[in-house]
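Homework help board

Subject: predicted structure for assignment chain

Our instructor gave us this sequence and asked us to write out the predicted structure in token form, then describe one feature. I got the tokens but I'm not sure how to describe them. Can anyone check?
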Amino acid sequence: MPEQNRPDHRLHASITTKDDKVEGVLCEIYLPKKVTDPVGLFFLPTTEQSHLLDHVFEFSFHGEIKDVSGKVRKIIKAERVYHTKSSTRYWDPELSEIVMVGEPANLRIIDLLNEEGQADKSNDILEGTFWLTPNAMLSPMYSRTLSFTGNVTIEKVRNFEFTLSNGLHLTFSHHYRYLDNENGETVSFPELVAEFKIGREEGEVGSLLQGVDDFLMLASFSARQSCVCLGWDSYDPSKVVKYFRRDVAIPKPKKDHSMHDGLIEVTDFAEFISTAYNSFVGIERKDLVRQAIHRAIGRGDGTLESNYLILYSALETLVLFCRQEFTNELILGQLNRVPFRTAFDSFCRHFDIDVIDLWPVVDRKDGVSLADVRNKLIHGDSFNPLQERALISAKEQLRWVVERSVLSVLGWQVPKSKVSKEYLSKMTMYKEWREDRKILSEST
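My token output:
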């Protein structure tokens, strides 16, 4: 259990496994201080309870907190929890303390506000916020004014808003959290949220997550900064709900990332996201495009070699999408019926993708292609220091090919992006790829 912290909740809960149900297990819950922090679940079973749970890997739990009159005022539950480790501390031969650590894929906390948690039928609006990781394109914009007296005034000048195809209207803003640091000082920090209001007839908030995820995926691609939803809160006259979502990959923070690092200029973002979102909504086979875009975004970690292979798989997935969407080829194996070069050329023609100025993907007439580099990595070829630098260049060239491809699939003009010929012409890796290609073409 976290040292020097008190649990946010302590209660007795029932644990349900595939084969059994164990009642009355003492549980301590530590909620995240920051949106990206883990949710801490620590169970303190008795010796008898631990015998039933010792070899359990996955379970659900449900607990209730009652007021002095015996009425349920809070419900805490998780549909899926993974048992990560257990420990036992022996105080004497007859006294021991068992701690079982759980990692929840999700955690829901429901505070019931009125009698038996029944909704006020006069109010059909549910309000709340989705909790998001940082994204430079979606963050509010502020203006800073310095007066002649030396006072600094900060004023918010923009909250980006967007309405999804399901009618959900999102307003992106900052909510401030407060945290005591190691020196005992209270510090505040902003976290990105998307505020919403929905009618009860629109269903549960959880059912809207796929639409939110798709929008954030496109915003992430434009910003070159992965942004995900890690939960939400909602409230109405009957209850307050907090939902902690931990079945998604949490991106590594980039403190120095700004809107200037994005693929799209911030002045074009509103037009881009509208165009890209409407194009994506109209795609029939969305799963392949989702896979490709998520791979194109990346997570900011991994090795040079693994990142290259992920980018190449994004390109393969887009080519497969094109074949399935427009030629009704339904399985991955069918992609092998024609050479990848033929499939890639057809993909470029269909979406009018121009990559003639970049390192060739499949053409090996004047040296190794990007496909050849991928094959070298797959087969575990080694690279000397000079070739490692050339491999970095190849990876960047591949990223530009993938980004141009995704933009074209989403109906956005490449010249209005930071992978246009005009923009890239200022970069050394764009101008010197032929030399790098020769280096990688040499035998290793």
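Reply (TA_rk): Your tokens look well-formed. For the description, you could write something like this. The mean pLDDT is 89. That's the kind of observation they're looking for.
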